[in-house]
Amino acid sequence: MPRGRPARKNTPTPPVTERGAKTRARLVSAAREVFETEGFINARIASIARAAKVAYGTFYSHFPSKEAIFMEVASELFEEMFREDPAAEHQDPAKSPRERLERSNRIYYENYKRNAALMAIIEQVEQIDPDFRELRNGHRRINAARSSAAIEHWQEQGLVSTKIDPWIAAFAIASMVDRTLTLQFVVGEDIDDNEVLHTLNELTIGALGIA
Amino acid sequence: MPRGRPARKNTPTPPVTERGAKTRARLVSAAREVFETEGFINARIASIARAAKVAYGTFYSHFPSKEAIFMEVASELFEEMFREDPAAEHQDPAKSPRERLERSNRIYYENYKRNAALMAIIEQVEQIDPDFRELRNGHRRINAARSSAAIEHWQEQGLVSTKIDPWIAAFAIASMVDRTLTLQFVVGEDIDDNEVLHTLNELTIGALGIA
Amino acid sequence: MPRGRPARKNTPTPPVTERGAKTRARLVSAAREVFETEGFINARIASIARAAKVAYGTFYSHFPSKEAIFMEVASELFEEMFREDPAAEHQDPAKSPRERLERSNRIYYENYKRNAALMAIIEQVEQIDPDFRELRNGHRRINAARSSAAIEHWQEQGLVSTKIDPWIAAFAIASMVDRTLTLQFVVGEDIDDNEVLHTLNELTIGALGIA
Amino acid sequence: MPRGRPARKNTPTPPVTERGAKTRARLVSAAREVFETEGFINARIASIARAAKVAYGTFYSHFPSKEAIFMEVASELFEEMFREDPAAEHQDPAKSPRERLERSNRIYYENYKRNAALMAIIEQVEQIDPDFRELRNGHRRINAARSSAAIEHWQEQGLVSTKIDPWIAAFAIASMVDRTLTLQFVVGEDIDDNEVLHTLNELTIGALGIA
DNA sequence: CATGAATGAGTTTTCATTCAT
DNA sequence: GATGAATGAAAACTCATTCAT
């Protein structure tokens, strides 16, 4: 949302020297802090530069805009949150759907809790910046595809109700979990953590019609 | 002295003449249109005034700020959306939980669809304006209380699983429905309308463990 | 979001480069000219920026407000006006009270005359801006303390009437001189300069009961 | 200082009905209160109308502007403050200069104290509105003429030093008294009331060289 | 006379982005 | 690459004054 002269936006090239890479990393880390405390709209490039202890102009040697650095910050987060579980135990086909769902919910729950401040800002930016919304929807689709595949698989095995559309169900259940955690951690509806997770598990399992 | 600097935001008094009331109503209606087409952030007071065919300053003799008129627009919408169903058929205790849930989902679905443009903006403002967020959370709590009471009632009758916490379930299921419709109508995941509603019904019913 | 609304007045940091320092100095000097010709209330930031040949926004990268730059302009003036006389002859204890008072009055008179235009604005701002009033009252107290000490000293030596309270007398006599010069130079009661100074001297000396 | 469309300012005619006269009086009285609490610049026509319990527009049936009603408020005050003392004792030529000055100072002191809030605003407006400044300077000259005549008279009688110019002395001493009381009652230099008056008396008497 | 709604020019302040060093 | 000063378009908000009833 440029106010001054129309933007030309030289997209900076990736850093080549080691010093450049370090500065860039400092900026990303500073940006995360600033976004978490100020929100996206109120975050100032000046604050980010200050927090990173670099000059104002240095920001623009590394990122073309506030949106761009936010994308970077969010991407790092997404990578952490939706990383295939290294052990991938909860994906182990040997385990029952119930076990796998509970495992999956717990991991998401813990990730969400740890990153609640930033998740709140992500909600905000999603409502404001179309490019970022697209990025997030992409992640959503990837996750939905994964869940959808699992649901279909279970349907084929007769473990899950066939009345539901796997793709829609994947979206809906992810929405339920995500949104409930938002309410829990961001809005601050004060409910017992374990109770929330337990109820989410039951609802998820029931929704899918798992025996 | 300076004019552009807000000293203490004058809250205008409600109009006493019919003429004043009409102008105010024109402003609210114009504001809704502008918000729907421009979004909250990009909506300009100037545009609202222009759309209502009044002078710039007239806006400020009726509302103290963009936030304030948005509250009004949203309140009107909420009133429409969460109005007790006049016939209240879906609340009829004679009907089965399944029938009542399906009815309730359908009504919300239709309301949401009809007001999708504004609902999208509401999501946006909720992320931006704490006062508005509080307003919306109040609505959420009222609805959750209503649903929660029904769930509890059904649990007592043995119609619904007692493994779930009614209050959390109320929030979670409302989140699921609401968010899925957002994805459907706002984000534009292109899915068949009937399929969405049908799947939401099944998920809802399953989640509650209704036989 | 909105740009026109002051969120938290950024207090800019002092310039670190010579270029910045020069621009800042140009602004202060331009501001003085604008204040002198337009008065404080009618002075526009735009005029100051134009007079300093910088862009509008440049003003705000050096000062947070019109009040702030005025403080700077006035501080420079006060420093000049109330600087200890370099030669400090009029403070020379060897001189008689009469000589010292006459000397002191003359210096103040000449300073006032030279800076009459700005002094008029200072009177104006003092009535309008509480922060500035505090600044000026601070100066008044410092000067009163100095005069008061001298009066007390003379009282101890039997040179000045002991019927008067030194502190109140210091304020009152300073008021008399200051205000009379305002009437003379600002309001423009057209009286002969030498006559004014001479009468002020006599009044001052008589008021203190100096033999 | 019109902001909107250039002023045409129909100067309202004096009220002819009794109702009109009452409304007008209510406005003047309300204006005084508002000016005292808000100052001139921050006083809003709206506040004055509200305090007088009349409609906004009614103000303009009686006064063409904020300046105009302030003139009225201030004129009432001046009339009270500089009214010839009904008993005119302090003017009694039989009394000594010292007695007359002390009496005069005391009366001014008490008037000032009683009206300190409004006096402060008068200082403010004097710095802002040239018309009002002229009004006040007129009052000053009238008073100075009166004092000047007395001083001259005393000089002829050999009671007062002839080294001083009566006209300048009249202004200067009035300034001293006035300004000291401003500092005392408005700025709030916390000094004992009796001490101030006593010292002012001594300074005044000494300044004039009264034996 | 009283009412109160309508008017709109004028000013401040913000801050993303550019650019000379 | 880093620095930090300069830029200026954009928008909100105020309130004295007018005017139709």
TrEMBL record, chains A, B, C, D:
Pfam families xrefs: TetR_N
SUPFAM superfamilies: Homeodomain-like, Tetracyclin repressor-like, C-terminal domain
Transmembrane parts of this sequence: none
DNA bind region: 44-63
Any GO MF annotation of the entry: DNA-binding transcription factor activity
Keyword Transmembrane helix (UniProt): no
Gene3D superfamilies cross-referenced by the UniProt entry: Homeodomain-like, Tetracycline Repressor, domain 2
Domain HTH tetR-type positions: 21-81
Superkingdom of source: Bacteria
Keywords from the named record: DNA-binding, Transcription, Transcription regulation
Segments for region (Disordered): 1-21
Cited PANTHER family: HTH-TYPE TRANSCRIPTIONAL REGULATOR BETI, HTH-TYPE TRANSCRIPTIONAL REGULATOR RUTR
Protein name: TetR family transcriptional regulator
Species per Swiss-Prot/TrEMBL record: Antricoccus suffuscus
